Records
---
Amino acid sequence: MRAVASYLVLLLALPLAALAIVSPANEYRAQGIAAPDCDWPLQVLMSAVPAALIYGAGALLAYRAGRRFHRLVSLLCLIIALATVPNIAEAVHELYRNAADGECRA
């Protein structure tokens, strides 16, 4: 029963992970406009960090179960967790860039 609940959490967190992987840190630069995006990096971080934590923990817990199916699930969770890392780094870099430019002060 516990394994079913764990897989249900991973399945329900899949849209969050997809949003975290697909969302650009600066949607203006993604469109080719050289302008700061003052709120979007935080929105990316709010979806990417929980997704990385959920799937990182899922990879660890599934790997410890030891069966072949669990190892496959662990590999898929690890791939999803690692796919969110570049977007997290880009969002943090964008936050530092906006702070250094001083254009996003309230």
---
Amino acid sequence: MKRLTYVWSTIGLLILFAVFLMFQMPGMPAWGTVKLTDILMIIGGLLFIVPIYMDSLRRKDDDGAPNRWVWATLPPIGMAVVCVGILIPNTVGFFSLFPLADVFYLVGCLLMLPIVVYPPFDLNREELEEEIEDMEERMGRP
């Protein structure tokens, strides 16, 4: 299953790289303010991050990480916020300081942080197994 995660994530990265190369090409198809590169960026980004998110969720469930709602709910909300940020035109400002799309990117990325951050102060399975083995050795059990 882990290999499939890498395959989908690699496909997503290749799409994102292709979008990077296409970004400044003249004559890019557009539907209003949404360009082909925006749609491909959303597809590539989701292909990249969703398998990693699913693997992270599975690992945290196996280890019994506390507060499952944080690890399971916030990242998909962050993905949706980033997708909306991609679709918002950069001409829309946020208090005339910077583009509103940048605010959406920042908030979305912060909401996706639980994908890569493991719960603090939580014992994972390997640490528990080592502790049990140490206790068994101290008590004289084989």
---
Amino acid sequence: MRMFLISVAAAVSTLALSASVDAKTFTRKVVENNDKCYLVEYIPSTYIYNTKGKKVSGESRSWVGNIADGAVIIKRRNPAVYIQTRKLLEQDHYTLVSQGC
């Protein structure tokens, strides 16, 4: 009887140890193809503006007033006149911005 109890105790302890080993499970997070998260961002065209692009007329000076009426006569400066030009630096496009997932 004693041998039987020892063998039963050994069997029970073996089952208890194996049950505790089976209870420990681990999960591993696998990122397939090393995927990364990106946000799509629209970038509009970028221009550089030149306010002194094409010259229409140069600087001049003139007299303003009427001598006949006896009014005050002023010597006036007229600045040059230009047509503004612009140059395309970068066309509009989409870009992917890493979000870091």
